[in-house]
Design brief:
By secondary structure, this protein is mainly alpha-helical. It has 10 helices and no strands. It binds fe (ii) ion (2 copies). One fe (ii) ion binds next to helix 4.
């Protein structure tokens, strides 16, 4: 699977940044909180993989790494634009991004490159299983505003396309054995706690900043069902999350490449509809 860098621009109506999701502002802000993680998070992924670039001997994997970095760079660029709409609408986007960047820079400075790569692997697994959920269940985005639906679907498809690249780099550059397995799984446990704490914190801060929105309290039930209900985000990804702890796990054991058949149609729709 060779990831392809697609240089695409999106038409995101600025006046709907706080309420673009079909299910209202609370669910919108869950997605917006995730969007705030991408610019700094994806820079961290690219740096973690880049650190090992020279040690990759397989030309196919070298090409995949190039595609991975190209895709993440495009995601970062588009989510910076997206997040600036939040800032312009009075939400604390830049402050939250700066905090995350500070935290990730500490990791880069003080922790071993192998640990940072294992965190990248864990977060790439998260993006892959969340992307799979978004792509296999159309009700996740439902009838939300097209520009925003496009950017999330594009990102989910490309995360699927490159989901195994950092994992394959890991397998090639880190010595196999029990130590590698324990580092990979231990990092997943630590990353899980930190990742969801940060998402929760960002989500709550966006909600507080937008507390004067109409029907603000009524919408809370929807976001609770969306995240924690029987068909919610957390129950829906639990099994795929657990699979990561199998000793012989590889991301393509979840073979969901059929989603990728949608890419060309999506790109055509975006290019036909976008005004930029
Ligand atoms: Fe990405
Ligand atoms: Fe990614």
């Amino acid at each position: 699977m060779l990831p392809i860098r697609r240089d695409i621009r999106f038409d995101l109506p600025a006046d709907r940044i706080k309420d673009w999701h079909e299910q209202g502002p609370q669910v919108t802000h869950f997605f917006n909180a995730l969007s705030l993680l991408f610019p700094s998070g994806e820079r961290f992924f690219m740096d973690s993989v880049r650190h090992y670039r020279k040690r990759i001997t397989d030309p196919q994997l070298t090409a995949e790494v190039q595609g991975f970095i190209g895709q993440e760079a495009m995601h970062s660029r588009e989510h910076v634009q997206y997040n600036e709409l939040m800032e312009a609408a009075g939400l604390p986007a830049r402050t939250l991004d700066r905090r995350l960047a500070w935290f990730l820079d500490l990791l880069k400075k003080w922790l071993p490159a192998s640990f940072n790569l294992s965190v990248t692997l864990a977060l790439e697994h998260y993006t892959a299983i969340l992307a799979d959920l978004l792509l296999r269940d159309p009700s996740r985005l439902g009838d939300s505003l097209p520009g925003y639906t496009h950017v999330w679907t594009w990102h989910a498809l490309e995360e699927t396309e490159h989901k195994a690249v950092s994992f394959d780099v890991w397998n090639q550059v880190v010595e196999p054995g029990l130590g590698r397995y324990l580092l990979r799984c231990g990092s997943m446990l630590v990353t899980t706690v930190v990742f969801w704490l940060v998402v929760f914190d960002f989500h709550v801060r966006l909600l507080i900043a937008d507390r004067h929105a109409p029907h603000f309290l009524r919408g809370f039930w929807r976001v609770i069902v969306f995240l924690y209900g029987p068909r919610g985000v957390f129950p829906s990804i639990a099994r795929q999350w657990l699979d990561y702890f199998r000793p012989g796990f590889h991301p393509w054991q979840h073979d969901n490449r059929t989603h990728l058949e949608r890419i060309d149609g999506l790109v055509a729709a975006i290019e036909a509809g976008t005004s930029r």
